[in-house]
Design a protein that fits this description.
The protein has 177 residues and is α/β, with parallel strands linked by helices. Strand 4 and strand 5 (84-92) form a beta hairpin. It has one domain (3-149): 2-Layer Sandwich (Beta Polymerase, domain 2). The chain is 26% helix and 26% strand. The protein is built from four helices and seven strands, in the order H-E-E-H-E-E-E-E-H-E-H. The protein is elongated, with a radius of gyration of 20 Å. It starts with a helix and ends in a 5-residue tail after the last helix.
Length: 177
């Protein structure tokens, strides 16, 4: 089954949940309402005719001042069995939640944590939603378009001096040049 046919099948099965279907450079993208994301993900994963058994990536997009809702969560899926790919897009505002898909794809655990860390998008039902790339005490979400490019001028990250000291120690012992 081709990705466009999969999109049409989802439109029929989940009436009103599919907002748009777009094809770009040979890849099909389906924009969904977030409320039934988990049901749709489970269907795409479990149904033998789809068999999307590999979640390649989850990433965020910030459309500040371009469109609303402000954020989009993008799920890149692949079927090892059928060798076809599909992209799911879910739109979300700043204070809204997106259902976690960790119960469908275990690898979503780390992908959702990264999306939370970089964009501040909260995944409802995630088993361990905490920062994964930035330190726990980091202020803000660096991939948001309103995040200052040079960091926050009026404050210094509390762990900054510790990192500088560690770098000096590494140089002292020849571990870092």
């Amino acid at each position: 089954m081709e990705p466009n046919q999969i999109a049409e099948s989802l439109k029929g099965e989940f009436t009103g949940e599919v907002v748009a279907v777009k094809e770009f450079r040979g890849q099909t993208g389906i924009t969904l309402k977030k409320d039934r994301l988990l049901d749709i993900a489970r269907r795409l994963h479990d149904a033998p005719e789809f068999s999307f058994d590999f979640l390649r990536d989850i990433c965020g997009v910030d459309f500040k001042k371009i469109k609303t809702p402000r954020f989009e969560v993008v799920y890149n899926l692949y079927s090892m069995t059928h060798r076809h790919a599909l992209r799911l897009n879910v739109q979300v505002e700043i204070k809204e939640f997106v259902p976690s898909v960790t119960s469908v794809w275990k690898t979503a655990d780390w992908h959702e944590r990264e999306c939370f860390d970089m964009f501040g998008i909260v995944f409802d039902g995630h088993p361990d939603l905490r920062r994964i790339l930035m330190p726990e005490d980091w202020a803000g979400h660096p991939m948001r378009k309103d995040y200052p490019v040079a960091g926050h001028e009026d404050e210094e990250w509390p762990g900054f001096r510790d990192v500088l000291k560690k770098a000096e120690d590494f140089k002292k012992f020849g571990w870092y040049k």
